Amino acid sequence: MPTKILMVCLGNICRSPLAEGILQAKLSKNDFIVDSAGTGGWHAGEKPDKRSIAIAKQKGLDISQQKARQFSAKDFKEFDFIYAMDMSNYKNILSLAENEADKTKVTLILNELFPGENVEVPDPYYGGVDGFENVYNMLDKACDVIAEKLTK
Ligand code: 4NP
C-alpha cells in the first residue's frame, strides 16, 4: 500500500498545489500518493493560480493539470500525513477531526524544517510574483525534509 500525503491550504490554488507537485517529484510514484485540498471550497474544480503554475514550470514541474477540491473529514481516513500551510488551515482541519488518531496526522508543514516554531507559509494570493518564488523555496526545503523522513 502506498503512503498517502495530503497538502492543505485555504483555496487549493496557490500554496498546496505547489507543495503537492514539489513533494511528488521527490518521491517514487509506486510507493507514495501526494494530493492537495483547500479548507475553503470557492475554487473547487479550478486549475492552480497562473502564478503557481508559472513558478513551478520555471523550476521544472508541471502542476497545470491539478484540480482544486475542498478538504473534508473523509480525508482523515484516506491519508496518512496531512500538512497545513498556516495556523488558520491547521485549526480548520483539526476542527473536522473525529478522534485523536485523526489529529495526530496533522502537522504545520514548516515545523518539519523549523521544529516547534510554528512558522507559516504566507498566503501569496494578494501579493506579487516574488511571493510565489518565496513560497516555492520554503516548500522545497520542507519537502526535502519530509521526503528524507518518509524514505529512510
Ligand atoms: P491558497 O491561496 O490558500 O494558497 O490557495 C488563496 C487562494 C484564494 C483565496 C485565498 C487564498 N481566496 O480568498 O480566494
Automatic annotation (TrEMBL):
Record's keyword annotation contains Cell membrane: no
Enzyme Commission code(s) on record: 3.1.3.48
Limits of the Phosphotyrosine protein phosphatase I domain: 3-149
Record-linked InterPro entries: LMW_PTPase, Ptyr_pPase, Ptyr_pPase_sf, Tyr_phospatase_low_mol_wt
Molecular function (Gene Ontology), one example: protein tyrosine phosphatase activity
Matching Pfam families: LMWPc
Keyword Hydrolase included in the entry's annotation: yes
Domain of life of the source: Bacteria
Active site: C9 (nucleophile), R15, D123 (proton donor)
Keywords from the UniProt entry: Hydrolase, Protein phosphatase
SMART domains: LMWPc (SM00226)
Family label: Belongs to the low molecular weight phosphotyrosine protein phosphatase family.
Record's protein name: protein-tyrosine-phosphatase
Upper taxonomic lineage: Bacteria, Pseudomonadati, Bacteroidota, Flavobacteriia, Flavobacteriales
